[in-house]
Amino acid sequence: MNFQEILDTDIYALTDEGLSKGRSNIEVVDAMLKAGIKVLQYREKDKKSGVMLDECLQIRAMTRQAGCKFIVNDYVDIAILCDADGVHVGQEDIPVPKVRQLLGADKIIGLSTHTPEECKRAIELGADYVGVGPIFATQTKKDVCAPVGYEYLEYVTKQHSIPHVAIGGIKLHNIQDVAQHGARCCAIVSEIVGADDITATVLALRKAMASK
C-alpha cells in the first residue's frame, strides 16, 4: 500500500508521551502497530534532541518491521539521522523547498494548513500532503490556531486532489461526522495515546469512520 492509499483509508496516529498515562512512547507505539496503524508521526516538543533521536531510532526499526510509514514532526535532522519516511512541518517551520533539499526527492513532506490560501501555497511548494485543521479545539498543541471547522475541510476535499489529513480534536464521538464531511484520513492524538486499551480504541475509531 502506497502513502496515497494509506491517507485515503486509514488513521494517522501521533505520539504524545505527556498524554500517555505514564507509558513510554515505545510502549504506545508498540500497541499502535499491533492495532495495524500504517502512518505514525513522532511529535514531541519538550524533550532533549538526544532523547528524541534515541526514541526515533527505536521507532524507526519498529515501524519498518510493521510496514508502517514513519513521519517526524519538525525535526528534519532527526528524520535524516533515523531514516524516517518523511517530515511534517508547520507554517512557521523550515520551508518545504528547503526541507526537500535536505531530505531528497523520495521522502514525504507534510505541511499544516489552516486556510484555502495556505493549501494552494502548499501545493505550489511541493508538499506531498497537507494537514487540515484544527477541525475542533485541541489541547495537544500550545501554539494552535482557532478551529477551522468543517468548511475548510470541505474546501480541500472538493477543490484539491492533494492527499490531506484532518486533525484537531478528533475523537471517537465525532470521527464519523468528520468522515461525512470529506475526511478520508484522520490524525488522532489523545484519543489513542490516552486510551486504556489502545488496540481496541483504534479498531473502534476505524469502525466509526467506516460507517459514515
UniProtKB/TrEMBL annotation:
GO cellular component, one term: cytoplasm
CC cofactor note: Binds 1 Mg(2+) ion per subunit.
Functional pathway: Cofactor biosynthesis; thiamine diphosphate biosynthesis; thiamine phosphate from 4-amino-2-methyl-5-diphosphomethylpyrimidine and 4-methyl-5-(2-phosphoethyl)-thiazole: step 1/1
Catalytic class of the enzyme: transferase
Enzyme Commission no: 2.5.1.3
Cofactor(s) annotated in UniProt: Mg(2+)
Amino-acid positions noted as binding 4-amino-2-methyl-5-(diphosphooxymethyl)pyrimidine in the UniProt annotation, renumbered to this chain: 41-45, 73, 112, 141
A biological process term (GO) from this entry: thiamine diphosphate biosynthetic process
GO molecular function, one term: magnesium ion binding
Positions in coiled-coil regions: none
A Pfam family this chain is assigned to: TMP-TENI
Positions contributing to Mg(2+) binding: 74, 93
Catalytic reaction list: 4-methyl-5-(2-phosphooxyethyl)-thiazole + 4-amino-2-methyl-5-(diphosphooxymethyl)pyrimidine + H(+) = thiamine phosphate + diphosphate; 2-(2-carboxy-4-methylthiazol-5-yl)ethyl phosphate + 4-amino-2-methyl-5-(diphosphooxymethyl)pyrimidine + 2 H(+) = thiamine phosphate + CO2 + diphosphate; 2-[(2R,5Z)-2-carboxy-4-methylthiazol-5(2H)-ylidene]ethyl phosphate + 4-amino-2-methyl-5-(diphosphooxymethyl)pyrimidine + 2 H(+) = thiamine phosphate + CO2 + diphosphate
Recorded superkingdom: Bacteria
UniProt-annotated binding residues for 2-[(2R,5Z)-2-carboxy-4-methylthiazol-5(2H)-ylidene]ethyl phosphate: 138-140, 169, 189-190
Iron recorded as keyword: no
Keyword line: Magnesium, Metal-binding, Thiamine biosynthesis, Transferase
Domain Thiamine phosphate synthase/TenI: 11-192
Cited PANTHER family: THIAMINE-PHOSPHATE PYROPHOSPHORYLASE, THIAMINE-PHOSPHATE SYNTHASE
Biological role stated in the UniProt entry: Condenses 4-methyl-5-(beta-hydroxyethyl)thiazole monophosphate (THZ-P) and 2-methyl-4-amino-5-hydroxymethyl pyrimidine pyrophosphate (HMP-PP) to form thiamine monophosphate (TMP).
Family per similarity comment: Belongs to the thiamine-phosphate synthase family.
Protein name as annotated: Thiamine-phosphate synthase
Protein source organism: Halodesulfovibrio aestuarii
Gene name for this UniProt entry: thiE
